[in-house]
Amino acid sequence: HISAKIMELHHSKHHQAYVDGANKALENLAAARQSGDFSKINQFEKDLAFNLGGHSNHSVFWKNLSPNGGGEPGGELADAIAEAFGSFEDFKKQFTAVATGIQGSGWAVLAYDTISGGLITFQLFDQQANVPVGTYPILML
């Protein structure tokens, strides 16, 4: 269970700050291109990656929520979880360990890995770091 206060904080403060930060980074990049001054390009790109990552991560998170959610998945997702983790119960244990093992700010992610064709879990930190190439997030906490 996540409290309403925490949800409001994430929606109105955290997520909005990432949207605002991404927009500012895009403005800074456009201004750098227009002026031809690329002396701060690395910082602008870093700002964009961090803030766009925060926006994208929260967008996935919101889609994971449902007032009537919970329980075990069915269909193809249930089959993929059983294939990757043995059972839904084993997946929950691994995902919980990933989430509780995060130091500082970060996300626990269940993702589809295009290389293996299966599901994997991983920790995502600093909104964009440690993301395996070719993965698509399914569940983020």
TrEMBL record:
UniProtKB keywords: Metal-binding, Oxidoreductase
- What Pfam families does the database record attribute to this sequence? Sod_Fe_C (PF02777), Sod_Fe_N (PF00081)
The UniProt record lists the Manganese/iron superoxide dismutase C-terminal domain at 74-140
Q: What SUPFAM superfamilies does the database record attribute to this sequence?
A: Fe,Mn superoxide dismutase (SOD), C-terminal domain, Fe,Mn superoxide dismutase (SOD), N-terminal domain
The Manganese/iron superoxide dismutase N-terminal domain, residue ranges: 1-66
- MF terms per GO, please? metal ion binding; superoxide dismutase activity
- Which region is the signal sequence? none
State which Enzyme Commission number(s) the record gives: 1.15.1.1
Oxidoreductase among keywords = yes
Question: Would I find Transmembrane among this entry's keywords?
Answer: no
Chemical reaction(s) catalysed:
2 superoxide + 2 H(+) = H2O2 + O2
Q: What's this protein's family per the entry? A: Belongs to the iron/manganese superoxide dismutase family.
**Role noted for this protein:** Destroys radicals which are normally produced within the cells and which are toxic to biological systems.
What's this protein's name?
Superoxide dismutase
Name of the gene this protein is made from: sodA
